[in-house]
């Protein structure tokens, strides 16, 4: 996926006309603010605690998956298998809940780590393109999940697991709290740790990073494993909220939602920079936009077309910066 | 079957008559052997899928008597023809180094548009999806080639947009348009020559035309050159942007046409089709030996890739006792094996 490194001459005057740096940096937050302001003025029952809480609960799994996706995209990769990983984690839960909650959670998270390890190995050791490497588990992972679950939807009755999905702490739903803490942790990882710097360096220029002596393969495998674990966690939380393990439909199109959140949040697709807060804002923007349109009785089709337009606009604004 | 990838920019294939390749050194025994090895690797990479496909078909015919019946062959090939038409466009896009994620939605949209327009006759039913889906392809091409945006994200957006458009014209998926029973358009999907349905013939004709286009026209050579190195192609004065726009437009047109054919076959515009089809198409292209980095690939490989995926699906249905979810496990496994093998075969041919 090369993009035209040679920017067309026609685009340059346009670039001078706008104030790119500011929009690139704060555009997504501005957009979230505009949507919220619009709703405060024109939408009844939108800016209520209840509704905002619902929106946050709905966006939480997307945020968790998108955090891992942001790391992967930061290495100039992409992970198409996250939806299947969610399904796989969901399928494993009922199998191991008999041994208790902790073993079930551990097995589900391990499955995510394993999927990530396979992806990371294919990308870093075999040298496959990330799309192809993760496509195999996108296709196979859901099949595996269905095989394990006998293609059946299973009710979850374990109260501890269910409380993960429905419980709250100080009025904040646990799901939202977990997503928030993870966002903080990933932001810390990216900006304050050696690992984070290595991830960004590898995404910026892989061969330079290798020449500089960075452990490229280990970092790549680590990043895909993190992405897999986060996806599995999102699968667990979504299952707890649904009160059922549904491997056939859980997480479908999640890869696209997550990639959208990351890209709208300003992380360039060709790596070298990761914006964690932007990713959270990107996921929120898509969620709020959809909710707003639906509250105004605009159908789903309009919401999808609007989302498409937002993606194009976001990438267009971020375009200049991406051509290093 | 002479579908070499010219890759005129990256690595000129060694001329047959000159043994001295690789920097003009004299041909030693070792060099000749490695050259032969490279030829075999190239051949395997290009036609290995065909070998796998034939092996699977032959073995399956012995084990499952119901597999090698003519009826079953017809069923498999008709099913394969729709994906094949979509994958044809995808192959060209991928050879330019791009990707088209929107084809699944465009396929579904094409089907719905065709079924909706079929009430006015054959031509509207065929042309409406072609015009709309071609326009979506053109939009993809414009945003990729002229605005310089990443193909992955542009076509991701049109994936959403096309599905939105589809929902809008079907009252949020509530309305299913039916093709009138006796219309000529329904005949296009259901009719057959010697038992082979029109969709198969259309797909074969398109693959023939696509092969000629890629191998025998300057447009085709430009497609390879653009994928080999976009910058080098620009420096050579090739119309890079125009080529990309045309390729994405073709991909949209073909996806729309496949949708229309499918609607004709089903006699209705089913709204829930095509989800995940882009990934099936990409899988088929990749299994068929086209490199995702662009610049090399073959149309025939894609055809075998599509057939292999369909045969796997059909076999798992034949086995019956096997859970149908194994189909995706096997397909995913095949994909890994093929791309890993390709990676090692391609090593030395192209260095990324």
What's the topology here?
The complex is a heterodimer of chains A (324) and B (352).
Chain A: H1 11-17, H2 20-42, H3 49-74, H4 82-96, H5 101-126, H6 130-148, E1 154-155, H7 159-166, E2 168-169, E3 172-173, H8 174-192, H9 194-204, H10 206-211, H11 216-242, E4 244-245, H12 254-264, H13 276-295, H14 300-322
Antiparallel strand pairs in A: 1-4, 2-3
Helix pairs in contact in A: 2-13, 2-14, 3-8, 3-11, 3-12, 3-13, 4-5, 4-6, 4-11, 5-6, 5-11, 7-11, 8-9, 9-11, 12-13, 13-14
Chain B: H1 29-63, H2 70-95, H3 103-117, H4 122-146, H5 151-169, H6 184-190, E1 192-193, E2 196-197, H7 198-216, H8 218-228, H9 230-235, H10 240-266, H11 277-287, H12 299-319, H13 326-346
Helix pairs in contact in B: 1-12, 1-13, 2-7, 2-10, 2-11, 2-12, 3-4, 3-5, 3-10, 4-5, 4-10, 6-10, 7-8, 8-10, 11-12, 12-13
Written account of the structure:
The complex is a heterodimer of chains A (324) and B (352). The longest helix of chain A is centred in the C-terminal third of the chain and has 27 residues. In chain A, strands 1-4 form a two-stranded antiparallel sheet. A two-stranded antiparallel sheet of chain A has the order 2-3. Chain A has 14 helices and 4 strands. Helices cover 74% and strands 2% of the residues of chain A. Chain B has 352 residues and is mainly alpha-helical. Helix content of chain B is 69%, strand content 1%. Chain B is built from 13 helices and 2 strands; from the N terminus they run H-H-H-H-H-H-E-E-H-H-H-H-H-H-H. Chain B has a two-stranded antiparallel ribbon. The N terminus of chain B is likely disordered. The interface between A and B is large, with 59 and 58 residues.
What labels would you give this structure?
heterodimer, A: mainly alpha, two-stranded antiparallel ribbon, two-stranded antiparallel sheet, 14 helices, globular, disordered N terminus, B: 352 residues, mainly alpha, 2 strands
